[in-house]
Amino acid sequence: MEAMIAEDGVAKSNQNREKAMRADYAALGEQLDRRGIAIDAILKKVEAFGVAVPSWGVGTGGTRFARFPGDGEPRDIFDKIEDCAVIQQLTRATPTVSLHIPWDRADPKRLKQAASRFGLGFDAMNSNTFSDGAGQSLSYKFGSLSHTDAATRRQAVEHNIECIEIGKELGSKALTIWIGDGSNFPGQVNFARAFERYLEAVKAIYAELPDDWRLFTEHKMYEPAFYSTVVQDWGTNYIIARETGERAYCLVDLGHHAPNVNIEMIVSRLIQFGKLGGFHFNDSKYGDDDLDAGSIDPYRLFLVFNELVNAELAGAKDFRPAHMLDQSHNVTDPIESLMLSVAEVQRAYAAALLVDREALAGYQQDNDALMATQTLKTAFRTDVEPILAMARFNRGGAIDPIAAYRASGYRRKVAGERPAVASGGGGIV
Amino acid sequence: MEAMIAEDGVAKSNQNREKAMRADYAALGEQLDRRGIAIDAILKKVEAFGVAVPSWGVGTGGTRFARFPGDGEPRDIFDKIEDCAVIQQLTRATPTVSLHIPWDRADPKRLKQAASRFGLGFDAMNSNTFSDGAGQSLSYKFGSLSHTDAATRRQAVEHNIECIEIGKELGSKALTIWIGDGSNFPGQVNFARAFERYLEAVKAIYAELPDDWRLFTEHKMYEPAFYSTVVQDWGTNYIIARETGERAYCLVDLGHHAPNVNIEMIVSRLIQFGKLGGFHFNDSKYGDDDLDAGSIDPYRLFLVFNELVNAELAGAKDFRPAHMLDQSHNVTDPIESLMLSVAEVQRAYAAALLVDREALAGYQQDNDALMATQTLKTAFRTDVEPILAMARFNRGGAIDPIAAYRASGYRRKVAGERPAVASGGGGIV
Amino acid sequence: MEAMIAEDGVAKSNQNREKAMRADYAALGEQLDRRGIAIDAILKKVEAFGVAVPSWGVGTGGTRFARFPGDGEPRDIFDKIEDCAVIQQLTRATPTVSLHIPWDRADPKRLKQAASRFGLGFDAMNSNTFSDGAGQSLSYKFGSLSHTDAATRRQAVEHNIECIEIGKELGSKALTIWIGDGSNFPGQVNFARAFERYLEAVKAIYAELPDDWRLFTEHKMYEPAFYSTVVQDWGTNYIIARETGERAYCLVDLGHHAPNVNIEMIVSRLIQFGKLGGFHFNDSKYGDDDLDAGSIDPYRLFLVFNELVNAELAGAKDFRPAHMLDQSHNVTDPIESLMLSVAEVQRAYAAALLVDREALAGYQQDNDALMATQTLKTAFRTDVEPILAMARFNRGGAIDPIAAYRASGYRRKVAGERPAVASGGGGIV
Amino acid sequence: MEAMIAEDGVAKSNQNREKAMRADYAALGEQLDRRGIAIDAILKKVEAFGVAVPSWGVGTGGTRFARFPGDGEPRDIFDKIEDCAVIQQLTRATPTVSLHIPWDRADPKRLKQAASRFGLGFDAMNSNTFSDGAGQSLSYKFGSLSHTDAATRRQAVEHNIECIEIGKELGSKALTIWIGDGSNFPGQVNFARAFERYLEAVKAIYAELPDDWRLFTEHKMYEPAFYSTVVQDWGTNYIIARETGERAYCLVDLGHHAPNVNIEMIVSRLIQFGKLGGFHFNDSKYGDDDLDAGSIDPYRLFLVFNELVNAELAGAKDFRPAHMLDQSHNVTDPIESLMLSVAEVQRAYAAALLVDREALAGYQQDNDALMATQTLKTAFRTDVEPILAMARFNRGGAIDPIAAYRASGYRRKVAGERPAVASGGGGIV
């Protein structure tokens, strides 16, 4: 397996930190032991946990006002795969990359080869009918899968089928559909007819889905449409999954909900009715801010994982949620943000594993609200960093991925190889 | 038919206003004629339109901080029916009263008699398991239909069945269930189990529903529960209606949604999937403010009616939404607020009837967003007051209900008969 | 004065509509007369009312996901001025254009000449330190006026001073500052120090402001910064205006507030404390959606104008608010959207002029909440379209600007002259 | 000093836990030592930290829908003081009680005596003009300090002055004013005149404030008023404090803001301009939910304390914020909720003390957003429970206050002494 970062640099970085990590791990182990928890069992679960990295996540994001590129921006999907390999090398928790077509369109053989150099696989394929690609004959300005024009809908369906075809060659097992279709004005769109058209189009895509694939549809309250959005919430998303078929599931992006909404409850509902497909992890304070996972409200992330672990332990039917990060890194080095975001997701998972579920069930039964919530809080406030560090270390990664990454000079190196990109923005306000 | 307000007073009030009303009606008729609309057809529809008044709406509301009673507060359901009769007499648009048990518990025969004096009928029955009634054996502090304790759930189910029994005697044809079950702390409740228990309880109630009745369940984002609510949104409500049975429908209260949510789109979805039961009309700026219908965002109310009229004209399957006001009148005379709120609901209906739907469908097909939204705006900004006034006048009501009511001295009169109530509040903060 | 649209086409369009308009105007005049209002006085005020058009508003907007250009997009500020001339010709309510530097940088003499061909003047100058311009030496990626680096702050200050210099040549009398400075992560920025730096920089700009100019600063809750924004709300904006000097004022953009916020109350506060500078009109349902003014919540726009008219009639001290549209037209012809938006702003103004303020003051004094709010509603629901149409007609514009514009074939013509632009987007997600 | 809970019971509870606590404390000390932090210095600060308990907090709260009383509810202020003594005995972090007049009106001598039995002092006095007290001559239905009627305003001013008088006898040093004045309908209130009246009334109260007292005014977005509130946000609150005088400060209640608002930034602004008076701690998910501090978003509470500790260490001018809990306990034993809430506030304080501020300042200067936010996260995720437990233990309290409290049987005991209260609610909907 190739390594983008020199192994000896990682080893040296770990050497300086191993002793402290082991001390912290031991102290935590002792504390957990007192609480009746075997730390090694938790460690094993954390080691087995993985999150997919979106190919577009390793480039610098932006807003409609501007994009301020970083140094050494990846030029194409092959550069992106190398950046993803860095993340996987140091965190050992991101074994797959999620592609976005047409941005990542390339010869599938070359893609497989490029990924296999680093032992990387391919997660869900992502289609794009929210912007017009070069040479595209019909525009998505007024919609794609729900467009009033049948030819435009057909073009959008065919694009999704192409994504499946590419994915089949790459070993992907899922297609994720997120569209921006909607309206900016009351009356612009007939809600019911638009949704009928959408359902018909999704069913046409589903008809081409291989038997061992899953279809993920994603809801979002608003943006890019600012009055109505065709898949605006989990209620509509649930109907889609239900009407489309057994292998159709709902994808939850943590930033796609109305203010104040209880997201963990939506997660529970989708699990209960067998329709949770997976997640786009990120965090948000206002809208679809696409901030780093756990950076704004880490307790909310924990509460989501509390539902996931609960379902996992209860053996919920048809429960195998896909995990993917989906973030926009505007002011940080994307590789660094992704490495820390993976750790935040692992942290939420590890903490959720510490919940004393038997005690919790008892408090719930007895309506002992205070002790029930304390049971969650006790798990949440436990500092599981030693477990995460040990998991990385055991699997060949870095105890402190940021430190190892910065010490490696990777960003400086690629900045020398990849030409600088001009700042963008202006005009779209 | 008895009249609570002296008929000659109403006649005198109308006399002063009839000429101006006829002039405005004629001018509007001319304008509508130019737009290809026959004003008399609109008038006829408005005359046939009715909204139920909630019995509790004629009392002064309050908040957890205080209740400031008004003069002449109704002492019991019989006083309330008299107040409702005033509203119907002057507006001729509120032919039914919606009862709330146990608040309105009384001998059904007496209730029917009291209502029939004024030609009033009974709309949906409302059960109450969000507070503990006098002499109730098990408390709803920790839930009712979703309580962890089976006996408490059974008690709540039986209360709903009692509501059906009373309603059967009164000629009601629907039961509305709104519960406050939920939690104030993460972990207090197991979301999935609570919802399973809820579904089981609702099915037990549904089993007792007469064949010609409908069951309405109401969703609400929060309050009185402040972390999670068992029927938190239309997605959950839709699942309930779907799982429960053919005669189970969703009720939409305009103030029960997350900030910024597109409510008219939810209305469209429920119509499309055959599960819109009806409305609790009111308005809100922040939460479940229970303000007067149309008082904060009249265009939103119009957009809701735009969906309803669209479905009505399209002959949507199983479409016969129940209309009820559900408001809290804290600083106004409840009778006045209810009379104006009825007018606001009629206004939204009348304006929605003016939408040029053929033109609209064309603009939608062509993605002419500007003309589509203008088509709605043209209808909305038409001042339909002359139509509403004429509808009231034609059916024996008041051209200006507030003026007629104030001139009648009704409030002064009942304030003399009904003893003053002490201010409440304090302690619940 | 040159005309971009053939005058005879406009005349013909008006000819078809004049009779109906006069009939409607007469009927409305009669109704208002009964209400004690002289329609001609209202007409005169509406005729005198003007709104500035932002130069960037005539181009098609977009989101971070995509931009879908329209036909005949303006290539430069001179094309933009021609488009603005169309709007002014047909609406007669947009006598000035507001420039944005560097986007509109050009020889001031040529700019003046270009505008004077159409009798257009220049409104407030807008600086841009939220994106990096070509050839700019220091980046605004991490801030501009509040940047931690003094040289970057100086560059941003100098850019604003340059805007003043250009504006002086053009006859502008105000500088508007909106910046995106803020942070995406807790801890990224020291709130207090950043605000100190901001205040220092604004004072340096203010020091260069000519005596007869005003400085407008604009607040915004979020975007492009997603955790904190240096001028996040009116409270901070008020402090800025207060600390900076007498000619420093707050600008209110209707889409820049937290969900549910009572904007008309903020307007009242700023008037009361002498710091309301003016408006960026638009509408929003979710965030800074930049939708067409009045398209989502026309009553809110009316309530804002209710405050403005109240202050105007009361002779509030130092009250002369600047009016500007600031919208993003993603799915409509920008010229059409701007023409209708101007009409919506005029509509709100005209309706607010109809409020019976003496009656209102009496109801307020007596706490007659119902009649107070009815007094506003009566004004709002009056269809003032005949007044707006007559104002346009009297001043040489079009009774129906959209119809006249579409009939003129202007968009088709410029689409032939101005080369098509490729769709954008993709990559910034 | 008297003890409400048997001392030997507490000792026994501690005995079982001391060894584990010491082990955890030692392990944490070692870890902090590696990070350059002396745990004992942190411990000392935590030991010195106190939060006031509101007298009304020890009673069960409720909503407008219902109140479900708990066992052994305090009958009067003397029962409440005993409950507060329990909290202080076990947590050793709540040395003062905050009274609410008229609810707690009693002979000041008896009050002082009752409190001094337990070594308790009195924090800020709270006035109440949001509900009508028994025997009050003029109603606050339409406002108090901002009422249109001068006599009602005078009555409200005098009530506040009475609160000062009582407070002087009790040794209080601050008056907190929160009012519900506002409106439920557009037009009901003239915003500017209402605020003028409010300012005049507050100045009249301020004129009676002793020289060593402070005046705290509290803002709140909505509830009990649902369209406008006279002190709606920190901007208005800042103007009040500024216009009123040097000893006038703003009080921040964490649940009183618009959705998504960045509260820690408001805290920073108020500190920067010398007007932060203090806090009403609680948590919220939707509105003014009054949930237990830190129960919904513990990271937000930490971020607030990050600002406070930053100001404390920087020696911000005139910085001595008052800390008070203000919560509504609807489903828990209030004593338990208050004990845990105090711990959550201490936890946020302790964690904020662990922030490496020198490193943070460097990252901020260099725009290293990732390391800046990690610096906060590292502090936040440190489990400081051993420090809190040791602080309680060292000062004579309980290592685990909930366990000690439950073991004591206190609630059972008072339930035997204090008569049961009937469930309330119903009618106010």
Question: Explain this structure to me?
Answer:
Chain A is α/β, with parallel strands linked by helices and 429 residues long. Chain A is globular. The first copy, chain A, has helices at residues 7-34, 39-47, 77-91, 108-116, 150-170, 191-206, 234-244, 263-272, 298-314, 334-353, 357-365, 369-381, 385-394, 401-408, 410-417; strands at 53-54, 66-67, 96-98, 121-122, 125-126, 174-177, 182-183, 214-218, 228-229, 248-253, 276-281, 322-325, 424-425. Chain A has 15 helices and 13 strands. Chains in contact: A-B, A-C, A-D, B-C, B-D, C-D. Chains A and B meet through helix 6, helix 7, helix 8, helix 9 and helix 11 of A and helix 6, helix 7, helix 8, helix 9 and helix 11 of B. Chains A, B, C, D: Residues 96-289 form the Xylose isomerase-like TIM barrel domain.
Task: Tell me briefly what this model is.
The structure is a homotetramer of 429-residue chains. Chain A is α/β, with parallel strands linked by helices and 429 residues long.
Question: What features would you highlight for this structure?
Answer:
homotetramer, 429 residues, 15 helices, 13 strands, 48% helix
Give the N-to-C terminal Cα separation of chain A: 46 Å
- Across the major sheet of chain A, the strand order is 5-6-8-10-11-12
Q: Uncertain spans of chain A, ≥5 residues at pLDDT below 50?
A: none
Biggest pleated-sheet summary of chain A: 6 strands, parallel
Q: Counting H and I runs of at least 4 residues, what is the number of helices of chain A?
A: 15
Radius of gyration of chain A (Å): 22 Å
| Overall 3D shape of chain A | globular
Largest binding interface between chains: A-B, 60 and 60 residues
